[in-house]
UniProtKB/TrEMBL annotation:
This is Outer membrane-specific lipoprotein transporter subunit ATP-binding component of ABC superfamily. Belongs to the ABC transporter superfamily. Macrolide exporter (TC 3.A.1.122) family. The gene is lolD. One of its GO terms (molecular function) is transmembrane transporter activity. Keywords: ATP-binding, Lipoprotein, Nucleotide-binding, Transport. CDD domains: ABC_MJ0796_LolCDE_FtsE. GO terms for cellular component: membrane protein complex; plasma membrane. Residues 7-225 form the ABC transporter domain. InterPro entries: AAA+_ATPase (IPR003593), ABC_transporter-like_ATP-bd (IPR003439), ABC_transporter-like_CS (IPR017871), ABC_transpr_LolD-like (IPR015854), MacB-like_ATP-bd (IPR017911), P-loop_NTPase (IPR027417). It comes from Candidatus Sulfobium mesophilum.
């Protein structure tokens, strides 16, 4: 793990307008995530974990405060630069896989690479190699409905890795999996972190998994404890 800070948040606040008034979800988050770090984020439902992850991944903007990626303020980026950042530097893995049901495993994994302009043949070759590495060599032509939950999540991981991201943001990635399959997926994350130096930020309710991260931060009521 490097001492280089990959992502930094400075006094990040996030509020949502409701009929009852502003709902404050994040209340002054200061966080530095180092390159190559495996960071676990824990806390009860409603603590603000998923909102924080969306802001770290430039899927949402803070109401106030700053988010820096490799020292650059994300707020200074135009829409095209933000889209490129999300496509090439950040991988996302969600609790619900969000795979496209009409496409097979390799097509789902290829999708971000095709969007970025990679040729079909190059994207297919890279996706096939990733799926092989993730133990899905026999399932590359299967559609999501023909895969188990664990297999679908591995396809989602391949999709997250296709652009060689610097960080993978995972929001309850084992939440819909049985214990054994969830443990296998987390082992996969640990191996990728160790072998390839990919930074991981993993939101999870599973303390036994988060305890295996390099560092764990706990959230409650929009703040770190």
């Amino acid at each position: 793990m490097s001492n280089e800070v990959l992502i930094r948040t400075i006094d990040v606040m996030k509020s949502f307008r409701t009929e009852a008034g502003d709902l404050k979800v994040l209340k002054g988050i200061d966080l530095s995530i180092r390159k190559g770090e495996m960071l676990g984020v824990i806390g009860a439902s409603g603590a603000g974990k998923s909102t924080l992850l969306q802001i770290l991944g430039a899927l949402d903007k803070p109401t106030s405060g700053k988010v820096q990626f490799k020292g650059r303020d994300i707020a200074s980026m135009d829409d095209n630069s933000l889209a490129r950042l999300r496509n090439t530097s950040i991988g996302f893995v969600f609790q619900f896989h969000h795979l496209l049901p009409e496409f097979n495993s390799i097509e789902n994994a290829m999708f971000p690479a095709i969007i970025s302009g990679m040729s079909f043949s190059a994207a297919e070759k890279k996706a096939k190699a990733l799926l092989d590495e993730l133990g899905l060599s026999e399932r590359v032509r299967h559609r999501p409905g023909e895969l188990s939950g664990g297999e679908q999540q591995r396809v989602a991981v391949a999709r997250a890795l296709i652009q060689d991201p610097e960080v993978v943001l995972a929001d309850e990635p084992t939440g819909n999996l049985d214990t054994a399959t969830g443990n296998d997926l987390f082992e996969l994350f640990l191996g990728l972190n160790e072998r390839k130096g990919i930074t991981f930020v993993v939101v999870t309710h599973n303390k036994s998994l988060s305890d295996r991260c390099h560092r764990v931060v706990e959230m409650a009521d929009g703040m770190f404890l």
